Amino acid sequence: MRVLRLTALAALLALCLSGCSVLGFVMTPDWTRDADLIVVNRNETPVCSITVERVAGSETTVNADGAALLERGESYGLTLDGGEGSLTVVLAGEDGGTLARFPVRFTGTRLVLAYEADGSATIQREGPRPEGAETP
Predict the structure, then answer these.
(1) Which residues pair with 61 in a beta bridge?
(2) How does pLDDT run across 4-24, given as a tens digit for each residue?
(3) Smallest Cα–Cα separation from 99: which of 48, 37, 42?
(4) Fewer CB near the last or first residue (10 Å), C or N of the chain?
(5) Which of 89, 106, 105, 110 minimizes the C-alpha distance to 47?
(6) Average pLDDT, the chain
(7) What is the DSSP track for 46-113?
(8) Predicted TM-score of the model (pTM)
(9) Does 31-126 carry CATH code 2.60.40?
């Protein structure tokens, strides 16, 4: 029993030293559950801001500390408060320059926009997610 406790303690210590935190992972909120638009970065270039442009105006999302919003493999969920209609999603890089612009038609169904390695986008429409479903 003592060996098992020491092994568990050693594993937790290794996780803490490696920068991983089991507690932090478990306590992370599910911020994509109510998102209308989920942006996934499959490109090597970090995305530092996401702007949603509509006829009525635009809304930009950035990290408060100036760090990249999306590294490769990360996703970010946005709520589209302006309702249904045409919009443009603009992704910008570290220097504030536009990486890509994607026209999108939002019909009230959740969208997953993946910024691909070649600079293009794939857009998938999804219905409401069942309780406990994982996000892409």
Answers:
(1) 50
(2) 444 444 444 444 433 333 332
(3) 48
(4) N
(5) 89
(6) 77
(7) PB-EEEEEETTEEEEEE-TTS--SB-TT-EEEE--TT-SEEEEEEEE-TTS-EEEEEEEEE-SSEEEE
(8) 0.69
(9) yes
